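Long-time lurker. I teach an intro course on protein structure, and each term I like to show students one example going from raw sequence to a predicted 3D structure in token notation. This year I'd like something fresh instead of my usual example. Would anyone be willing to generate the tokens for the chain below so I can use it in lecture? Attribution to the forum is fine with me.
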Amino acid sequence: MYTVATLLYPHALATSVALPMEILQAASQTASVGSRGTPQVTTLLAGPDGGPMRLSSGLTLQPDLAYDALPSLDLLLLPAIWRSPLPTIKLLRPWLPLLRDFATAGTRLCSVGTGSCLLAEAGLLAGQPATTHWNYFERFARRYPEVQLKTRHLITQSGNIYCVGSVNSIADLMVHIAEEWFGSRVARAVENQFSPEIRRSFRAAAYQDQTDSSHHDELVIEAQQWLRDHLGAAVGMQTLAASLGLSVRSFNRRFRQATGTSPQAYLQRLRINQARELLKHSNLNVSDIAWQVGLQDASYFSQLFRRHSGVSPLRYRQAVRGKLFTAGNLE
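-- Reply from a regular --
Happy to contribute to a lecture. Here you go:
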């Protein structure tokens, strides 16, 4: 069971409150099918005093509890702030230590748009990468010169601190978190439900200040790089393990400890991600794409792709090409 809370404040953008919580609730419902219907995510709304919160849009939301009554959390969301964030900063200044407490406890903190200003005011972004709404880049950089502002990335990650630049990007991040919590099958089902035209993946959109999987095992990093460099080749894990001076069993154990997944599962993810790019940007047929990503059996490749993506390779291509369609494509 995961517990997620969203902070409410008067100038919060309602869509940045509702969308991430709806995506996580959909993931919870999908994942609960294998758990006899037991909910997998609890979502909470929190207000400064627990009273009704009227947003700038005119919507009034009823928090479940006050800020100081929040339990231990797996994820804390800071919604986008409509127009200038300064009034919200002033209002929430007494509560900034709460953000630091949650960050220290290991809770994932995620800001949307200029919600990142709250993280910066709390001192959680000093020396760290971050992003914010594009219209506030210059003012953010002047107010927080110690923050490494990433203007070319819609998502940034530094440890357990995430910033996204827009409401659309929060959907990408929530799908990524759903995949980490419940696996690729659930994530793809939710992604297809909310955005059938196929969204940009977290890894494609995000700036991360850690090597893949946020670990520091140099030997495993070497193995990951080798797999990326030899994606189209026939990969023998025994040979790779031996080249690193390890038995297959030790290599598998060490790789899983560092990344949370097996070498084979990691390789499959690389192959599927590369296949998605080829389906999107090339006219190669499915058999050729399977060959390009190191799989000679097109039927097995199609099964693997469907398992990871929720749709067949051809359906994926149709969805992506539909999204990329422009009048210039007319003949």
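Some talking points for your students: The longest strand covers residues 41-47. The chain has two domains: 2-208, 213-324.
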